[in-house]
Predict the structure.
Amino acid sequence: MAKVMVVFWSGSGNTEKMAEAVAKGAKEKGAEVTCKNVSSTSVDELANYNAVAFGSPAMGAEVIEEGEMEPFFSSALLKLSGKKVAVFGSYDWGDGEWLRTWEGRVKSGGAMLAGSVKAHLEPDAAALAECAALGATLAG
């Protein structure tokens, strides 16, 4: 059975909704899933999982949240080689550059990019379905 960890940071609740949909999709595919706010987990916990999904909204100049998610992800990246990793989040401006940059960091860190999902502001039904499909991919 696959073990999937979903780690997210959410300011408005949009990225949290996406995290819950990723977790639901992985559970429906039969995975054991843990879904946590980044402030409630540690990088060391990731060693117990086959796949990890990271969620963060776009912040500032199209970057992931810098107070908690960025330091967590930077540390985690060193331990993700060979694991399936997905990234997701919501944005308000721009065109999703933060997500493309994040995807590149996953790949250059040696992890297997399983996919990504972005939502403009609050995720609609289509974005939540994409998140669930992303979770199923991580569980497969």
